[in-house]
Amino acid sequence: MKNTVILISGSGSNMQALVRAAEQRRWAQRLGARVAAVVSNKADAPGLAFARGHGLATAVVDHKAYASREAFDAALMAEIDRHDPHGHPALVVLAGFMRILTPGFVAHYEGRMVNIHPSLLPAFTGLNTHQRALDEGCRFAGATVHRVTPELDHGQILDQAVVPILPGDTAQTLAARVLTQEHLIYPRVVERLLACGV
């Protein structure tokens, strides 16, 4: 079985879209794949309750409990790897996980870790993407699924969704429209990766 571990920091709406896709599209039967666990760096992340409600293993690795990023990443790595009999999941999926990961962590999962970012990369890496797109007068915004590399939001682009920016859009209205597209493209990419062995 190809195990996927999803990392969240909040409600994990993209995690929820992935879990629903795994159930509805029968990843276990069709792909020999499953969502094995959901891990958060915040104990109060609402997404954990959703994951437990769907029978998934959950865990919390609180970044505040560690003296350094390296120590946190080592603990997180141990927790992730615990959820796969081979000691390394087929895929680690970042779904609103709001921590910048160390190069050592990224290297450990090289080629097996993906992220979704709320802009049309390479434009607007980092935070506040929707407001920045509006401030720059962009006509389009969107979301990008990419492989994770040590350089923030610079990995290989795996898929993108384009959303028009409408007159009167605010960062909030644009974010909501982009999010609906994220929920479509992220499961599609993850399923494709699992189908072809990542």
Radius of gyration: 16 Å
Secondary-structure element string: EHHEHEHEHEHEEH
For the largest beta-sheet, the strand count, sense and barrel status come to: 7 strands, mixed
CATH superfamily: Formyl transferase, N-terminal domain
Distance N to C terminus: 13 Å
Total strand segments? 7
Specify the CATH class: Alpha Beta
- Low-pLDDT residue spans: none
Overview of this protein structure:
- The protein is globular, with a radius of gyration of 16 Å.
- Helix 5 links the parallel strand 4 (91-94) and strand 5 (113-117).
- With 198 residues, the chain is of the alpha/beta class.
- The chain contains seven helices and seven strands.
- The relative contact order is 0.17.
- It has a seven-stranded mixed sheet with strand order 3-2-1-4-5-6-7, sandwiched between helices.
- The chain has one domain: Formyl transferase, N-terminal domain (Rossmann fold).
Helix and strand arrangement:
Layout (H helix, E strand, L loop, with lengths): L1 E7 L4 H12 L2 H5 L1 E8 L6 H7 L3 E4 L8 H13 L9 E4 L8 H6 L4 E5 L11 H7 L4 E8 L9 E8 L6 H25 L3
Parallel strand pairs: 1-2, 1-4, 2-3, 4-5
Antiparallel strand pairs: 5-6, 6-7
